[in-house]
Amino acid sequence: MSGNQNDRMEDKPARLTVLIDAEKKKAFEDLCASQDITASQVVRQLIREYLAKHGVQYRPSLAPKSD
């Protein structure tokens, strides 16, 4: 596989599965909806903030940001 193909693969979104209880999930989704933001947007922001807080450097994806 060429370097360009590897680069494109690394820029694809990856799925993160999180298990939480149903009531907490509903409360979180309801709160997000009331703020006109998706749960995924909130989780991505929390991850960015957590990485920054701990000084973790990463190469942001070249894909357009949805949040």
Q: Low-confidence parts, pLDDT < 50 over ≥5 residues?
A: none
- What is the N-to-C succession of helices and strands? HHH
How much is the radius of gyration in Å?
A: 15 Å
Taken from the alpha-carbon principal axes, the silhouette is elongated
Helix content: 55-70%
Helix count equals: 3
Mean pLDDT, as a whole number? 85
Please state roughly what percent of the residues sit in beta strands, choosing from under 5%, 5-15%, 15-25%, 25-35%, 35-45% or over 45%: under 5%
The major β-sheet equals: none
Report, as a whole number of angstroms, the end-to-end distance: 32 Å
**Count of extended strands:** 0
What structural class do you assign from the helix and strand content? mainly alpha
Write the layout of secondary structure elements.
Layout: H1 3-11, H2 22-34, H3 39-53
Describe this protein's structure:
With 67 residues, the protein is mainly α. The chain is elongated, with a radius of gyration of 15 Å. The chain is 55% helix and 0% strand. It contains 3 helices and no strands. 0% of the residues are buried. It has a domain of 37 residues.
